[in-house]
Amino acid sequence: MEIMSNSCNKSKILIFGGTGYFGKHVVRASTSFGHPTFVFVRPATAQMPPSSLQLRGEFRSLGVTLVQGELEEHEKMVSVLKQVDIVISVLPVSAVPDQIKIIDAIIAAGNIKRFLPSEFGCEMDRITPPLPPFEALLEKKKKIRRLIEASTIPYTFVSSNCCAAYFVNFLLHPHDPRPDIVVYGTGEAKAVLNWEQDIAKYTIKVANDPRTRNRVVIYRPPGNIISQNELISSWEKKTGRRFEKACRVRIT
């Protein structure tokens, strides 16, 4: 589907979790498209790592408005929400249930045109049945999804499948000099690997597209569907090295 881009009136976008692994890409994508961008962040502390402070500095240089606060500060969130049009949550897995506080604040603000919760990953309503450890995570996400659907909040649910850089590093360990690679199962299972920057850019676009209102959008380019064995073969061609497929692990 071709995604429409509004180049005239730029939506104001508020991002929760914008300093995280994937969140920073969403913030950069938002500013690259010219959207006035706000990021709700925890207050800076002396214990904060230099990398986090540097990232905040980068955001400020891009014109991002950093709003320091906690998710428990309902009134502060409502006041910020009243200044924006779109809300994108990229909170980490551990904070998925905390999105209830964001939903409450959005309802109280009453002006948000679109909310994208922290879903991404697989399309949860199509997986049957998930494995027990994964099932617990999906249940948390499904609870948030059902709350949003039952509310009056306009939404878009994004299924971005796998973050390519993260999973390629996990499956190939390209910086490891050892000649062996652990293969999971038979290595033939297919996955959709989408580049983090591409996921972020399309997320900003679908958030502004009227056709995606109250819809599920799945990022599944045919050329990005690949198995671990195919990844290893491509890596061998690129590097000229030969890898041993060692320590096969069958996941049951």
TrEMBL record:
Keyword match NADP: yes
Keywords: NADP, Oxidoreductase
GO function terms (MF aspect): oxidoreductase activity
Cross-referenced InterPro entries: NAD(P)-bd_dom_sf, NmrA-like, NmrA-type/Isoflavone_red_sf, PCBER-like
SUPFAM superfamilies, per database record: NAD(P)-binding Rossmann-fold domains (SSF51735)
Gene3D superfamilies: NAD(P)-binding Rossmann-like Domain, UDP-galactose 4-epimerase, domain 1
Domain NmrA-like, residue spans: 10-245
Protein name, per record: NmrA-like domain-containing protein
